Amino acid sequence: MSLEEIRTTRLDKLDKIRKAGFNPYPARTKRTHTLTEIGGQFDVLMDEMVPVTVAGRVRAVRGHGGSTFVDIEDGTEHLQLYMKKDTLKDAYDFFLDVGDEGDIIEAVGTVFLTKKEERTLQVTAWRMLAKSILPLPEKWHGLQDIEERFRKRYLDIMFNEDVRVMIQNRARFWHAMRRFMVEEGFLEVETPVLENTAGGADADPFATHHNALDMDVYLRISCGELWQKRLMVAGFPKVFEIGRIFRNEGMSAEHLQDYTQMEFYWAYADYEDGMRFVERLYKYIAKDVFGTLEFTIGDFTIDLDVPWERYDYQAIIRHETGIDVLNTNTEEIEKKIRELGIVYNKGGMNIARGVDTLWKYCRKRVSGPGFLINVPVFLEPLAKRKEGAENLVERFQVILAGSEMGKGYSELNDPIDQRERFEEQQRMRDEGDAEAHMADYDFVEALEYGMPPTCGFGVSERLFSFLSNKSVRETQIFPLMRPK
């Protein structure tokens, strides 16, 4: 039968249920036990012949003369139901007439063990809770096309245990992150998602309009960096936020447009403190969620338990490309980019974008785990200059399997320096660099009241996807899809 023929047949069954005086979509169930609870109490329930009511989706129906076996699952476990005509009378024939795989039903009965020792519920009554109009995908193959899997994620989860486990692990990942931060004395905060100025990162923001205030605003591109640093000015010693951020940029195995990120800010700490703290954080999460510190990520084998390396930004680029990032120009960088066959965006090209393009080419060869340090000041408008090397900043990035897995720095708290860097970033924006940082002079004013030495750091769900050895798109529960 075609899909439309199956749908028509099931609509006829839906009509039969209604004409028989039953609601095929009741608001409530009389369920007394989840299927997991049935399993945990099975021996007692069987010995005492305790009547129970269960509910779940029909996943298989097998007829045997005057009896039928029905497999159901409820999101916690599965259970076999035994329906017998002698017991159910007309209700048995009614099930065979209107029931299908995919229906969600309620069943009343007592549990017993079959001759094959399978836990089973002998049904004395049943009721439809939600009639399925469309058939489930073929049992053993489910959804094969990756786009169809993402578009109908609910079916992908139903048929793919790996996806279900991934979603559970994703939740554990953020629970572990939050638990570690709270236990370390950090206060969880919430900062605005809509901003007048998109700050805290080099990224192209999404823009929208605020009708009540009649003004254009941006969806944030960081997890409240400039707001959390205002809390440092206000006197909070340790804060963090886990929230959604938005970047109007390209899609890849490592990049999305909206995703979850955690950022923390720690007063009276610097980037050395931050590196030690982040290493402990990552090991804690890996052990808690995955039960190991050893991972296969793409072509890399990673052991988080080994001493973490320190990678010099300038040295790596010089070794791989021959370019001295502190003594170069846009023309030399673009020539090298073309020599290496790197595809890049020519619009708004400047030294900062060119050097960053070279680094992204070089980092693919760096295994990690380790921290990338000694980054030029022209790449970080919000980081403190390195003492004794004023053309560098105290920035650190976690490097795992050739990619960046979090970034932090000793935060710039000199308002004069911050204003000058914002002005330089604005000049870059005016010349066509859409990812240059927007100038936020309200934030500069906050710094003029005094912000203590502070370490800040941010990590996104990309870390979870890498530790899972999957693309970041695949580890989102409902990836954004173009409408059909």
Question: Main sheet: which strands, in order across?
Answer: 6-10-11-21-20-19-15-14
Low-confidence stretches: none
The gyration radius over C-alpha positions equals: 29 Å
User: For the record, what CATH class of the largest domain applies?
Assistant: Alpha Beta
Overall average residue pLDDT: 93
What would CATH call the architecture of the largest domain? 2-Layer Sandwich
CATH superfamily of the largest domain: Bira Bifunctional Protein, Domain 2
- Strand % is 25-35%
Helix count from the secondary structure assignment: 16
What is the number of independent domains?
2
Helix content: 25-40%
Q: What are its keywords?
A:
about 475 residues; alpha+beta; OB fold (Dihydrolipoamide Acetyltransferase, E2P); BirA Bifunctional Protein, domain 2; 2 domains; eight-stranded mixed β-sheet; five-stranded mixed β-barrel; 16 helices; about 25% strand; elongated
Task: Describe it.
This protein has two domains: 3-136, Nucleic acid-binding proteins (OB fold (Dihydrolipoamide Acetyltransferase, E2P), Beta Barrel); 156-308 and 368-467, Bira Bifunctional Protein, Domain 2 (BirA Bifunctional Protein, domain 2, 2-Layer Sandwich), CATH 3.30.930.10. Helix 8 crosses helix 10 (271-290), helix 12 (330-339) packs parallel to helix 13 (351-362) and helix 14 (415-430) packs antiparallel against helix 15 (441-448). It is α+β, with helices and mostly antiparallel strands and 484 residues long. The model has no long low-confidence stretch (mean pLDDT 93). The chain is built from 16 helices and 21 strands. It is 35% helix and 26% strand. Strand 17 (385-386) and strand 18 (389-393) form a beta hairpin. An eight-stranded mixed β-sheet has the order 6-10-11-21-20-19-15-14, sandwiched between helices. A five-stranded mixed beta barrel has the order 1-2-3-5-4. A three-stranded antiparallel β-sheet has the order 7-9-8, with no helix packed on it. Keywords: Aminoacyl-tRNA synthetase, ATP-binding, Cytoplasm, Ligase, Magnesium, Metal-binding, Nucleotide-binding, Protein biosynthesis. It catalyses: tRNA(Lys) + L-lysine + ATP = L-lysyl-tRNA(Lys) + AMP + diphosphate. Belongs to the class-II aminoacyl-tRNA synthetase family. InterPro entries: Aa-tRNA-synt_II, aa-tRNA-synth_II, aa-tRNA-synth_II/BPL/LPL, Lys-tRNA-ligase_II, Lys-tRNA-ligase_II_N, Lys-tRNA-synth_II_C, NA-bd_OB-fold, NA-bd_OB_tRNA. One of its GO terms (molecular function) is magnesium ion binding.
